[in-house]
Each structure stands twice: as structure tokens, then as C-alpha cells.
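Help needed: design a sequence for this.
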């Protein structure tokens, strides 16, 4: 294709994380042919003002892309409103867009994969989004007999993903019918398995003040029998679980930062959407176990007072 989909980069108050994210994106083979839209949220607290200013100063130095557009918020929006603002902006400028958060290291094949996936699934109305991240070790253990490089579920992570204008703009983020869903054990069990445990957070995400828009999107897919297409091998790592993000999770890097050794430039795509409980139960168990161990490690470090500062450059694994 002669035109490639733009990338939305979401930033706030972590200049070093943003720098590492951009440096990884610049190593992508399509970086120089890709428009980069950068969204910078305004400080929500006085103690964030300096870090936001430092982040914005760095953003002004970015080059290496087809174009760089910086959109600075005048007031703090927070994650959910920022996601809606960025998504609508991207939809005004392109048929589809790619999304990267400010603590994600992408593989050099990431943009190639995302553009191919967005083109492949463009006419499959059941696919609401494409993920660039995956829980690769969990997939490896659960998909031993699976013949394709893509798997489908209601699960959704906002780390690195993409979607189309006609799907983003019609999504319902209000979680209609959530009370009935939460009171129906059969539906909850199905939602939990086919979202790989993500919809365990549906109750929290449904609160008006919740910023968990990724869970809202997962719920929307479940309610409308839509899916997210996930790669078998990861094209992105999240190195931001170091206590600095909005959720303040401080996980060992072994749970979310893995060597990106298997990300193919030409993955084996399929439109064969398999939502069989057996397949997804195995994935859900493997992924849930990783989250449990990650949270246990986070809690133990908190109890022991070992929430020490982490060298972010070392945490961001090099392929």
C-alpha cells in the first residue's frame, strides 16, 4: 500500500518512558512513511506540572516520521476522555489508526504487522480491533495445536492496537445492561473465559468515575459478539508497570517484558473466528495465572518496602 495508517501516541508525565517508546517506533521499518499524532494531557495535579512540561519539551524534538503533529490539552482529561478525544481526532484524518501508549516498546515489524492486519480485517465487520501486544508465553502454552498466527477474543488491552473509523465511532462505551450481566452467572462465566479474565473488572469499569475504558471496550465487544484479533507472537512490550503509571502497579518485568524474538513480518492471518470454550479456557487460565503472580509480587514488595526506583532503560528489553 502507498499510504500507511497514522499512529496515535498518548503521553502525560513520563518523559523518559515517552522517549523510549518513540525511539522504538523510529526503529520500525515504516516509521519514515507514517504520520505520528501525539496527544499530551494537561497536568491534573500541581505535582505533575514539571513532568508534563519536560515531556512536552521532549515531544518538540521528535523527528524521523513522515510528519509529527502534537496536540496539547489545555485541561486535564484523564485516560478515558483522552482516549475518546484522540480516537475521534484520528478518525477525522484517516480510515483507520494505530494506537501506542507512552510505555510500550514496539518491534521493528510492529507497524508493518499493524498495517497488514488492519487491511486484512477491514472488511470483516465482526473484528472491532487488532492488538499488537499479546501474552506470548501464555499463548505458546495454550495454542500448541492452533494452526494460525491470529486468535480472537473479547479481551482488549490498550497498550498497542488499532481499529477503523467505522468501528471506533459507533462503539458504545456506557456498558448498557451491565447490571443484568453481573447478576447472570452463566453470562459472567462466558464473558470471563472469552475475555481471558478481563471482564472480571466489569463492575469496577461500569462506575461513572472509572477510567478503565479498555474494559468498557471489551464489554462492548462481548455484548455485540465482536472480537479483537490478537497475534500469537507479540509485537510490543509494556515496560511501564514500574509504579509510575496511573494504576501504580509495580510488577516484575518478567511478566510483561519478554524478548520479541518471534514476531513475523508476514503472519498467517485467518478469518476463522474460534470462540470455543475449551480453546479460550486454556488461554484464560494461563493469562490469569500471570496476573495473579504479578499482583502477588507487587503486594509483597509493598509490604517489604521494596518499591524501589527501576532503571527504565534496562526494563525496556532490547530485541
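Sure. Designed sequence:
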Amino acid at each position: 500500500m502507498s499510504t500507511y495508517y497514522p499512529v496515535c501516541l498518548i503521553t502525560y508525565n513520563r518523559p523518559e518512558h515517552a522517549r523510549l517508546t518513540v525511539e522504538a517506533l523510529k526503529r520500525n521499518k515504516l516509521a519514515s512513511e507514517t504520520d505520528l499524532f501525539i496527544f499530551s494531557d494537561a497536568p491534573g495535579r500541581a505535582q505533575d506540572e514539571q513532568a508534563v512540561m519536560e515531556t512536552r519539551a521532549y515531544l518538540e524534538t521528535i523527528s524521523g516520521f513522515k510528519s509529527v503533529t502534537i496536540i496539547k490539552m489545555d485541561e486535564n482529561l484523564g485516560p478515558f476522555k483522552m482516549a475518546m478525544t484522540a480516537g475521534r481526532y484520528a478518525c477525522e484524518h484517516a480510515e483507520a489508526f494505530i494506537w501506542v501508549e507512552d510505555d510500550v516498546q514496539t518491534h521493528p515489524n510492529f507497524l508493518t504487522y499493524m498495517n497488514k492486519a488492519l487491511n486484512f480485517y477491514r472488511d470483516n465487520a465482526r473484528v472491532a480491533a487488532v492488538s499488537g501486544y499479546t501474552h506470548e508465553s501464555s499463548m505458546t502454552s495454550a495454542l500448541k495445536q492452533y494452526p494460525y498466527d491470529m486468535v480472537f477474543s473479547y479481551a482488549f488491552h490498550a497498550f498497542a492496537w488499532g481499529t477503523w473509523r467505522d468501528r471506533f465511532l459507533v462503539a458504545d462505551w456506557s456498558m448498557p445492561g451491565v447490571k443484568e450481566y453481573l447478576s447472570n452467572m452463566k453470562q459472567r462465566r462466558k464473558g470471563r473465559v472469552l475475555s481471558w479474565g478481563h471482564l472480571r473488572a466489569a463492575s469496577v469499569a461500569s462506575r461513572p468515575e472509572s477510567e478503565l475504558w479498555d474494559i468498557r471496550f471489551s464489554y462492548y465487544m462481548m455484548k455485540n459478539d465482536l472480537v479483537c484479533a490478537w497475534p500469537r507472537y507479540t509485537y510490543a512490550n509494556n515496560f511501564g508497570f514500574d509504579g509510575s503509571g496511573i494504576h501504580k502497579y509495580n510488577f516484575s518485568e518478567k511478566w510483561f517484558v519478554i524478548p520479541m524474538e518471534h514476531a513475523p513480518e508476514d503472519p498467517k492471518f485467518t478469518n476463522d473466528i474460534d470462540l470455543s470454550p475449551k480453546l479460550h479456557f486454556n488461554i484464560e487460565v494461563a493469562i490469569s495465572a500471570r496476573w495473579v503472580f504479578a499482583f502477588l509480587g507487587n503486594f509483597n514488595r509493598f509490604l517489604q518496602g521494596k518499591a524501589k526506583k527501576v532503571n527504565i532503560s534496562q526494563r525496556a528489553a532490547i530485541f
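The two ends are 27 Å apart (CA to CA).
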